[in-house]
């Protein structure tokens, strides 16, 4: 083959190779365009689903709230029996509305969540005010029990100021307890226990406790912790919400449907929560999965209605931290090596 032929053949190879590379680049570019179009389509569909869920939540939540408000308006001028029935129905519907909100937190924006929580709190306040106005409490008394004998002491006068210790509050309406709450208040350096029979499905309040160990067995309806300092508080499954306010240097272990924590510092929370945990005006708060156990824990989970297999302990919303994509500096996850495992000491 002469030089001209060789050159022509080589040029043909080069041209063919260049065409193949060009074709490959075009195919890659076309594939990239297809993938990009698919991503945009998926993003658009996800956005549409999120908006649809948000619209459904908003219309359903506002509709249920309006129904409850209409119910409460029917208390005006009604006789006692009718008012009692209305308030029972309104209370049940409010509980269901709270559950609906808890179940919807995964797809709500923080703004939507705040607005709904504020509306629900306003509704709960209106319910309490309506009950107070329509069914004034006939009796309110603190009953102190001795820690050693655990016996009920005679009721003190309504104007007496309760001292430190165990307390139970009750209000009698038509012979039935309309409001019941139990707990501990104003105590230091004590080991405090409530049995399952004492707290089952009741509201529990712990307030102004310092350097105490508290064991709450059973399934409370709600749990309120206020002004807690250097305490270890272990609680059975709470069927609705746990509210923590002004807690510091403490260890908490609790399962619940919702956790709301305010003004809390340097506190560890061993948590089982079926919606999401919310913190506000907090710093130095750390989380780990709930690990306390006692003989009847599974029975108490059944009583509470909480989903044993659903735990969002590490999904924490900080209402003081709105920087998207950047973790809040106000809370952390407790490293596995540092987590408490022995609760008997």
TrEMBL record:
Q: Which residues form the signal peptide?
A: none
State where the protein is found: Cytoplasm
Region (Disordered) spans which residues? 1-51
Q: Which branch of life, at top level?
A: Eukaryota
- On whether Acetylation is a keyword of this UniProt record, the answer is yes
C-CAP/cofactor C-like domain mapped to chain residues: 154-321
Asked if the Swiss-Prot or TrEMBL record annotates the protein with the keyword Signal, the reply is: no
Q: Name one GO biological process term.
A: tubulin complex assembly
Taken from the UniProt entry, a GO cellular component term is: cytosol
Q: Where is the composition biased (Basic and acidic residues)?
A: 22-51
Q: Which UniProt keywords apply?
A: Acetylation, Chaperone, Cytoplasm, Phosphoprotein
GO molecular function (one): tubulin binding
Which SMART domains does this entry report, sorted A to Z?
CARP
Annotated function: Tubulin-folding protein; involved in the final step of the tubulin folding pathway.
Q: Which family does it belong to?
A: Belongs to the TBCC family.
Quaternary structure?
A: Supercomplex made of cofactors A to E. Cofactors A and D function by capturing and stabilizing tubulin in a quasi-native conformation. Cofactor E binds to the cofactor D-tubulin complex; interaction with cofactor C then causes the release of tubulin polypeptides that are committed to the native state.
Question: What is the protein's name according to its record?
Answer: Tubulin-specific chaperone C
> What organism does the record attribute this protein to?
Mastacembelus armatus (zig-zag eel)
């Amino acid at each position: 083959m002469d030089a001209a032929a060789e050159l022509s053949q080589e040029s043909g190879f080069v041209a063919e190779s260049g065409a193949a590379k060009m074709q490959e680049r075009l195919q890659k570019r076309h594939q990239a365009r297809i993938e990009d179009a698919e991503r945009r389509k998926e993003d658009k569909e996800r956005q549409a689903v999120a908006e649809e869920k948000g619209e459904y939540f908003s219309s359903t939540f506002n509709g249920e709230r309006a129904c409850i408000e209409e119910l409460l308006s029917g208390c005006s001028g009604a006789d006692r029996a009718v008012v009692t029935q209305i308030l029972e129905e309104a209370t049940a519907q409010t509980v269901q509305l709270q559950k609906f909100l808890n179940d919807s937190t995964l797809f709500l924006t923080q703004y939507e969540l705040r607005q709904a929580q504020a509306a629900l709190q306003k509704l709960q306040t209106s319910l309490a005010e309506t009950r107070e106005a329509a069914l004034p409490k006939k009796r309110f008394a603190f009953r102190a029990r001795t820690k050693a004998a655990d016996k009920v002491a005679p009721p003190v006068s309504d104007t007496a100021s309760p001292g430190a210790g165990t307390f139970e509050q009750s209000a009698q309406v038509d012979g039935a307890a309309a409001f019941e709450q139990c707990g501990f208040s104003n105590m230091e350096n004590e080991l405090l226990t409530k049995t399952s029979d004492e707290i089952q499905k009741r509201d529990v309040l712990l307030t102004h406790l310092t350097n105490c160990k508290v064991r709450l067995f059973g399934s409370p309806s709600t749990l309120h912790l206020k002004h807690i300092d250097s305490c270890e508080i272990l609680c059975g499954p709470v069927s609705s919400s746990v509210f923590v306010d002004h807690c510091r240097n403490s260890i908490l272990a609790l399962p619940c449907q919702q956790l709301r924590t305010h003004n809390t510092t340097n506190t560890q929370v061993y948590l089982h929560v079926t919606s999401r945990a919310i913190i506000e005006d907090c710093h130095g708060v750390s989380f780990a999965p709930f690990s306390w156990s006692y003989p009847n824990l599974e029975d108490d989970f059944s009583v509470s209605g909480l989903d044993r297999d659903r735990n969002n302990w590490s999904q924490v919303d900080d209402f003081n931290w709105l920087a998207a994509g950047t973790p809040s500096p106000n809370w952390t996850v407790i490293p596995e090596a540092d987590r408490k495992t022995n609760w008997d000491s």
